[in-house]
Amino acid sequence: MTSTPAKAQQYRALGLSTFAFTLCFAVWTIFSIIGIRISEELALSDTQLGLLMATPILTGSISRLFLGIWTDRYGGRWVFGILMLTTAACVYLLTFATTYAMMLVGALGVGLAGGAFIVGVAYTAAWFEPAKQGTALGIFGAGNVGSAVTNFGAPFLLVAFGWEKTAQIYATVLAIMGIAFLLLAKTDPLAEQRRSAEQKSFAEQMAPLRELRVWRFALYYFFVFGAFVALALWLPHYLIGVYGLDIKTAGMIAALYTIPASLFRVLGGWLSDRFGARRVMYWTFIASVVCTFLLSYPPTRYVVHGIEGDINFTLAMSLPMFVVLTFILGFFMSLGKAAVYKHIPVYYPMHVGAVGGVVGMIGGIGGFILPLTFGVLNDITGIWQSCFMLMFAIVAAALAWMHYAIRKAERVEWAAQTEQTDLPELASPQLFYPMNRHPVADAAMRNSDQHG
């Protein structure tokens, strides 16, 4: 970007893309509510329900890779608008499905809404200077609150009109937004640069993926985003099964998780700009390890053989404590989502769509695999809390790998006797683009990232 766009243009682009992404995310998670009614009508098992909830996440995840490349090439305005119109048509056609197999096919089309994330990331990042991209992308990412819109609003539509009418209302709103985006959004500032640049092959665009660093970021996002989506889908069913709530109450309580896991992404972007993304990731993973460990403990009855007889007591998670812990978990996951995507425009400014698409795809695949796995674990173990046991294992592994990689990078710096680093998550914003590079440290660091 040769010059910074006017603030009015930046705010216009950010506002349109954030609102559009909010609606797309609401559509993407629609099966968290209508899936429960469909499950009752078709008498589905937990595994079948988990697959139905997860299928849109699969499409949304895989499509991010290609949509990111198309956005790098053609710009976000047209890709975003056409994507919303296509998804709206798929949501409307879903209402004609009458069998489980037809539902799964329809869910694949609904999942295109999830691809909107990487389109919006590339489009939004193009309007802002690097020092403000973390905050801007945090605001845009707050569109995850669309899942709270669905958890809160869809149950009332479902009870009043049925799942078919609910889906049709969603399709109509998304189609209107798609047309509005095409009419109101402006071409991003990097469009001219893309037109003048030599078109790269698919292999060249994917070249950054040879770096292990990208896949490390992808694991982070597998948890902070993939597990967020999975839990947003699974929570209403979990609350109905564990605490015996009705669907409207379960939806509203689930929103208490999805709202902080979405809106506080803005704070995560600002904190990443201010203190560095590494610190934010440490906060996220440590807090998530604690929360998922506590949530994974199933109700247990203990018998202590005392001197004068047996002493019986039970440990179980009350509903208020469950709400508090999921709120805290959602808060820190929201910070982590922003911190992961703070890295990408800094490392790969001309490959935001491609690299971000892969990271987003892996994160989204987590949103596909995990709800399905939650259902399978329920059917196999018969323990509702098994979903949190799995999440605990994932976040503990991500924390261990991140800490190992960072300490390895620090040892390279110490050996080179330099404080400079190519890891912006270790630094303050003013050190994102250090002027005095140390060639020995640079070479060693690149080699380290390839292997660690």
Automatic annotation (TrEMBL):
Subcellular location(s) of the protein: Membrane
GO MF annotations, alphabetized: nitrate transmembrane transporter activity
Q: Which organism is it from?
A: Marinobacter nauticus (strain ATCC 700491 / DSM 11845 / VT8) (Marinobacter aquaeolei)
UniProt keyword annotation of Membrane present: yes
Might you report a single GO cellular component term?
A: membrane
Write down the PANTHER family for this protein, in alphabetical order.
HIGH-AFFINITY NITRATE TRANSPORTER 2.3
Primary location group: membrane
Protein name per its UniProtKB record = Major facilitator superfamily MFS_1
User: Quick one: a GO biological-process term for this protein?
Assistant: nitrate assimilation
TM ranges:
12-36, 48-67, 74-94, 100-125, 137-161, 167-185, 214-235, 247-268, 280-297, 317-340, 352-377, 383-402
Name the membrane topology term. Multi-pass membrane protein
Name all Major facilitator superfamily (MFS) profile domain ranges: 10-410
Q: Which UniProt keywords apply?
A: Membrane, Nitrate assimilation, Transmembrane, Transmembrane helix
**What's the family?**
Belongs to the major facilitator superfamily. Nitrate/nitrite porter (TC 2.A.1.8) family.
